[in-house]
Amino acid sequence: MDVEEAIRDRRSIRKWADKPLERETLEDLLDSARLAPSGHNGQRWEIIAVTEPSRLKQLVPMCHNPRHVGAAGAFLFIISDPDSKWIHVDPAIALDHLTLRAHEMGLGTCWIGAFNEGRIRTFLAIPEKRISVIGMTVGYPAETPEPRTRRDLEDLVHWERY
């Protein structure tokens, strides 16, 4: 699979196969995130990986009740250094690299942007000197969603000025 194919075919997955995600596979994905570019190569973010099924289920109410969180192979939560100029951008780039690698490997992902900051901070023991950024589920898909419509390029791009 080439990069263009991965970009065009990747979908958010919300139904997971009952198949555990192997540690080696997850480490491969996390390494893809590690290799992503970051401002001044600072890599001022970290990922907390949750794979224990009972802990995944406990995350569901903390993420405003998406059941698929509890059935995923893993829940990844990215935190960032609050002093980083690219506090949200660098983690997003890292996770986007991970999503494309996951798709190439036959895995699925889904961004989780809604969560209870206080509860998730306590549950994941996030240090006070870190900012919660975003979560992501990963696992073996049990669905193949149809593509969603996208705006035309002409509606999104302005050449030279607005």
CATH architecture, by name, is: 3-Layer(aba) Sandwich
Q: How is the largest sheet built, in terms of strand order?
A: 1-2-4-3
Helix content: 25-40%
Distance between the termini: 36 Å
CATH class: Alpha Beta
Describe this structure as you would to a colleague:
This protein has 162 residues and is α+β, with helices and mostly antiparallel strands. It has a single domain, classed as NADH Oxidase. Helix content is 38%, strand content 17%. It is built from seven helices and four strands. Strands 1-2-4-3 form a four-stranded antiparallel beta sheet. The longest helix has 16 residues, at 89-104. The N and C termini lie far apart (36 Å). The mean pLDDT is 96.
Describe this structure in a few short sentences.
The chain is of the alpha+beta class and 162 residues long. The protein has helices at residues 3-9, 23-34, 53-62, 67-71, 89-104, 117-123, 153-156; strands at residues 45-50, 74-80, 108-112, 131-139.
